[in-house]
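Researcher: Go.
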Amino acid sequence: MKKILISFLILFFAVAFVRIGTSIYENIRRRSDGQHILVNQKITAKEAEKLCYTVMGKQDETTGFPFSFGVTNIIEKDGKEYYTIRASWLVNNSHMSYIGDFFVSVDGQEIYTGIVQDDEYTIDELIWSNQN
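Model: Structure:
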């Protein structure tokens, strides 16, 4: 009986390790520059905001106005989930001014421009992609 139980436990753990290894392998892709990236993993709302700063910078290059990015919602469009990001900038250190909306895929692989208006979401142009 002990041998059967030990054999069962060994088989159970072997199957579990194979599944875990397969799952990890499916979620890692090698980019053309040789770096490995995780795919199919959700990022947090704060990570989506940070990604906007990383891609677009802390301030506008022309005006020097500092950007502000804030997640307002999470939506599903065409079978894919996105964080909606409201973008503003601080004008002459006096007031915040709305400059547009962005859509960050929840896997953190794409950023699109778009419009959020009256609970309708229009995704326009792909402006950044981590996929080569």
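Model: Confidence is low (pLDDT under 50) at residues 20-37.
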